[in-house]
Write a structure and sequence with these properties.
Layout (H helix, E strand, L loop, with lengths): L6 E2 L2 E2 L6 H26 L1 H30 L4 H28 L4 H12 L1 H10 L1
Antiparallel strand pairs: 1-2
Length: 135
């Protein structure tokens, strides 16, 4: 226990520090932007909310793979990171492929060539996922 009121566990508290107000202002701006961005995504619809979830999943997987990289470097496994990303995106294609099939066909129906490409990929989505897992 310290007798100094401005110290806790050996660190100086931000009782009379001006940087805490700057930090609070930055956090307030960030909060307003995040709430506004989320409200905009909700306004835009289901496809944009799905895209936000996918982006969050990719960032979470990046953090997880960075943690796994430290243990794999000790064992010196070649291609460990590439294999992680391969299985991650294959699982995402398998999970979200059928869900997005109707949305993608409706989105690209104006261009005939792109429509044929997307409808062909959707038609063979399970087959593609199976061979990606095997490979």
């Amino acid at each position: 226990v310290t007798t100094d009121g401005n110290k806790a566990n050996g660190q100086t508290l931000l009782v009379s520090d001006r940087n805490k107000y700057k930090s609070m202002l930055i956090r307030t701006y960030s909060t307003v932007w995040m709430i506004g961005g989320f409200a905009f995504l909700v306004y835009m619809g289901h496809l944009y909310i799905w895209a936000m979830v996918v982006v969050i999943q990719i960032f979470m997987a990046t953090e997880l793979f960075n943690l796994l990289r430290k243990s794999s470097e000790e064992k010196q496994l070649p291609g460990f990171r590439l294999l992680n990303w391969h299985f991650f995106f294959t699982a995402m294609l398998f999970t979200y492929g059928r869900f997005l099939s109707r949305e993608l066909v409706n989105t690209v129906s104006s261009d005939h060539l792109l429509y044929k490409l997307v409808s062909g990929l959707i038609k063979y989505q399970m087959f593609i996922c199976y061979f990606l897992y095997i490979s």
